[in-house]
Specification:
Blueprint lengths: L5 E9 L2 E10 L6 H11 L2 E3 L4 E4 L2 E12 L8 H10 L11 E5 L4 H4 L1 E8 L2 H16 L2
Antiparallel strand pairs: 1-2, 3-4, 4-5, 5-7, 6-7
């Protein structure tokens, strides 16, 4: 298979950690397509099949994403309010560094208090730390 596809699996706790059991392979765009696309389009990165990494020039890029950051405190707010808050807190995307958050599902904020975001960093730790900080500041503990 060459192109976009999705794999669903079960992660089961085993004696030596976790075991992944394949459930199905979907030969179509899936839930992980959007975060991958956000990382590629905002950073100019390309997928390197030899290393399995996204590379923006000589710099690897890493991302962590969610489509379910939900909080009662977001309900009733406008997408603009939430984006201004994210910018004020330094959670937006920095086009010069090509790191930061790319937000989506903003239309679900007013009624459902929910949004999604992809946190992009120059290391796995940077992406994970930004993701945890954003989740804590926008969505609560």
């Amino acid at each position: 298979m060459v192109g976009l596809f999705g794999m669903d699996f079960f992660a089961l706790k085993a004696d030596a950690g976790y075991a992944a059991l394949l459930c199905e392979i979907n030969l179509r765009i899936g839930g992980t397509t959007h975060p991958f696309g956000a990382a590629v389009l905002t950073t100019g990165a390309r997928y390197d099949p030899a290393t399995g990494q996204l590379m923006s020039g000589d710099q690897p890029k890493f991302y962590t994403a969610t489509d379910n950051c939900a909080s009662g405190c977001l309900r009733g707010r406008t997408p603009g309010e939430v984006m201004r808050t994210a910018d004020r807190l330094g959670l937006g995307f920095d086009a010069e560094r090509r790191t930061g958050n790319v937000f989506h599902l903003l239309g679900a904020i007013p009624e459902h208090g929910k949004l999604g975001f992809t946190s992009i960093g120059d290391s796995r730790e940077e992406a994970d730390e930004l993701h945890a900080l954003t989740r804590r500041l926008l969505c609560g503990p």
